[in-house]
């Protein structure tokens, strides 16, 4: 195994013990196995990834849901792949994954972590800015993109401290309306992982333009985020009994949004829990 300090462009230590973690992320050490169950096999994470990687159970749930709805074949593009948490799980269920990130350190982590999980041969890594890459063809002549996915930056650890919910229209670097437009320019369906306190009124406004569905993702009885789905995938019939194991619980129906208001009777919002 290569020296992580020699791999990272900024010479940041990527293979950590509790004692080497920066002080501001030491509190996440106890969550290491929920982020990567194979952490002890040499998983790489920069200090930022300790609080931005999708928990493994959530990433697996998302990949399995998308696989069941789309048939589990084809190419997935993972924009803002971070440390590869979602990329790894998509690679378990789909033929190929294109993982994109603007940060070379994240690409280094994703490449290594895909090797740890034995899926590196199914993953293509691309370092680049989505603002530019969104204007380019993402796959060659060997197939089309089946699904576009993005877990964009939420602005650090302070995203929950907002009075009216997380403002997805001012999300940086990608405002949600532009992000969804750019993702759907490459595939007929896409998904975006958003904060649990996202402003639901803004999400509903976007549903006027696209078929949409919002899935509340729960881990240990705690909502960890929303999976906003757009496009043709929302037209499929959802049969959770076929998609998931008996030990995985789910509920579907009306939910309260981040502002405490009811979503209504349109049935577009689901609550899924493990």
UniProtKB/TrEMBL annotation:
It catalyses: a 5'-end (N(2),N(7)-dimethyl 5'-triphosphoguanosine)-ribonucleoside in snRNA + S-adenosyl-L-methionine = a 5'-end (N(2),N(2),N(7)-trimethyl 5'-triphosphoguanosine)-ribonucleoside in snRNA + S-adenosyl-L-homocysteine + H(+); a 5'-end (N(7)-methyl 5'-triphosphoguanosine)-ribonucleoside in snRNA + S-adenosyl-L-methionine = a 5'-end (N(2),N(7)-dimethyl 5'-triphosphoguanosine)-ribonucleoside in snRNA + S-adenosyl-L-homocysteine + H(+); a 5'-end (N(2),N(7)-dimethyl 5'-triphosphoguanosine)-ribonucleoside in snoRNA + S-adenosyl-L-methionine = a 5'-end (N(2),N(2),N(7)-trimethyl 5'-triphosphoguanosine)-ribonucleoside in snoRNA + S-adenosyl-L-homocysteine + H(+); a 5'-end (N(7)-methyl 5'-triphosphoguanosine)-ribonucleoside in snoRNA + S-adenosyl-L-methionine = a 5'-end (N(2),N(7)-dimethyl 5'-triphosphoguanosine)-ribonucleoside in snoRNA + S-adenosyl-L-homocysteine + H(+). Gene3D superfamilies: Vaccinia Virus protein VP39. One of its GO terms (cellular component) is nucleus. Residues 265-274 have a biased composition (Low complexity). It holds the Pfam family Methyltransf_15. GO terms for molecular function: RNA cap trimethylguanosine synthase activity. Residues 249-264 have a biased composition (Acidic residues). Residues 249-274 are annotated as: Disordered. SUPFAM superfamilies: S-adenosyl-L-methionine-dependent methyltransferases. InterPro entries: RNA_cap_Gua-N2-MeTrfase, SAM-dependent_MTases_sf. Transmembrane segments: none annotated. Belongs to the methyltransferase superfamily. Trimethylguanosine synthase family. This is Trimethylguanosine synthase.
């Amino acid at each position: 195994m290569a020296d992580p300090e020699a791999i990272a462009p900024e010479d940041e230590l990527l293979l950590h013990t509790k004692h080497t973690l920066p002080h501001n992320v030491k509190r996440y050490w106890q969550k290491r196995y929920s982020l990567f169950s194979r952490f002890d096999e040499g998983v790489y994470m920069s200090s930022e990834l300790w609080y931005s990687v999708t928990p493994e159970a959530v990433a697996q749930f998302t990949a399995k849901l998308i696989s069941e709805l789309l048939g589990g074949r084809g190419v997935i593009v993972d924009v803002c792949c971070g440390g590869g948490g979602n990329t790894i799980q998509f690679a378990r269920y789909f033929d190929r994954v294109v993982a994109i990130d603007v940060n070379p350190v994240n690409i280094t982590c994703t490449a290594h972590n895909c090797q740890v999980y034995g899926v590196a041969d199914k993953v293509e890594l691309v370092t680049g800015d989505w603002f530019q890459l969104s204007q380019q063809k993402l796959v060659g002549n060997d197939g089309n993109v089946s699904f576009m996915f993005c877990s964009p930056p939420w602005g650090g650890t302070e995203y929950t401290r907002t009075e009216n919910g997380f403002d997805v229209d001012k999300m940086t670097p990608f405002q949600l309306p532009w992000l969804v437009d750019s993702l759907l320019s490459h595939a007929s369906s896409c998904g975006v992982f958003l904060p649990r306190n996202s402003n639901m009124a803004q999400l509903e406004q976007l549903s006027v333009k696209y078929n949409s569905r919002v899935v509340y993702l729960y881990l240990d009885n705690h909502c960890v985020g929303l999976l906003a789905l757009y496009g043709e995938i929302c037209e499929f019939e959802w049969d959770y009994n076929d998609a998931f194991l008996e030990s995985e619980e789910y509920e579907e129906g009306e939910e309260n949004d981040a502002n405490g208001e009811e979503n209504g009777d349109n049935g577009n919002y689901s609550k899924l829990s493990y």
